[in-house]
Amino acid sequence: xxxxxxxxxxxxxTEAELEALREKARVEVADQRKKAQARxxxxxxxxxxxxxxxxxxxxxxxxxxVPGYTNYIMVDGRIMNQGEIVxxxxxxxxxxxxxxxxxxxxxxxxxxxxxxxxxxPTTAQVSALAGSSGHKLSRx
Length: 140
Prior knowledge:
This protein has helices spanning 15-53, 90-109, 123-133; strands at 59-63, 72-75, 78-81, 85-89, 137-139. With 140 residues, it is an alpha+beta fold. A hairpin with a 2-residue loop joins β2 and β3 (78-81).
C-alpha cells in the first residue's frame, strides 16, 4: 500500500513568500491550460485545412434512419443509433448511406416484416441539431 507524502509545512514561509508561491502556481496553471487549448485549436485547424485541401475529408452530417429490425449501425467501431445525427468525413458518410440502403433493401425483401418496430426519427431531433450547427443534413 503506497503512502502519501506529508503536506509541506507552511510555517517556514512568510505570508509574502506564500502569496508569491500561490501567484506562481496560478500563472503556471494558466499557462498549462492555455497550452492545452492551443494544442486543441491547432488540431482543429489542421483538420479544417485538410478538409479544404482534400474534399474527401470534408465533414458531413448524416441522419441515421434504419429499419425496425435494428436500432443502430456500427462504422469504424463507432455505434450510431437510430435517429442520431452524426458528423463524419464524407467518405464515411458514403459508407453509412450504403449500409442504411442495404438495410432497407433487406427489410423490403422480407415484405416489411419489422415495420411495426420501426420508429422514424422525430422532427424535433432533426430541427434542433440542424438549427444549432447550420449545416445541411444528408438524409440517408
